[in-house]
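Lecture 7 notes: from sequence to structure.
We start with the chain below.
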Amino acid sequence: MSIEESRVDPRLVLAAAERGPEALLRLGDITESGGVFRGSMPVGPWLEVGGRTPAGAAAVLVDDVLAYALAAAEPPGAWSVSAEIGLEVLRPLPASGTVTATAGLRHADAVSGLATGQLAAHDGTVLALCSQRGRYVKAPQDLVEEGAWGGPPAPGDLERLLAVQAGVPMATSPVLSNENDSLHGGISLLVSDLVASTLAPGLVTASLHITYTRGVPIGSEVTWRAGVRHGGRSLAVVDVDGVADDRVCTSARVVLHSPPG
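Predicted structure tokens for the same chain:
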């Protein structure tokens, strides 16, 4: 199916900032023009973890914009769920300003779709390339939309909120929810990045790839089990599984390398 043949309800394109993770990260509206979906978010000290802005901080934005592109081709009565998300990091995220994600639908059939896009700084510098494979399933009933999580941004907000550690159960709350009352896929990607980074001090994320095998209901606890496949001074490969109720729900591979410059 081509982008021109896609079906988009314009009421859905403007709702991004009303839900929990989107409100938490202060995402702006997602818009569409000529088959290109676009969304932005501010970056600042509230996103810093260990003195830097992690690549995964933009994971919710990337997930949402790619998901809207996939939703453009949903069969009637269907819903798109993330199967895989990939993020190839080209440059570090800035410490301030805004970042913008753009995406378009590349392929769709009755079962699945593929969307690709990029993340850019406010001056247009490309920061990362991204992709998402989605599966079309029966649309859930009574979708849950959480209210905004308020309060002005403050340094270290994200680090205090998540406070994740490998092997330590993390509680899930509505502020981390998607519309289906499950842990947002972008949050899972972000946490996988943060956990991997703690096991490779001094290195920064080069790429992330995550596969979603099961949903994580809000209210459950997730344990992030990490293993270093390679740990060197200039390159590390870390696998991170998100486990809930003794079942693997997400499986991520994070590649980290020496900071540029």
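Points to note: The chain is about 15% helix and 40% strand. The helical segments are 10-13, 20-24, 59-71, 157-162, 185-198.
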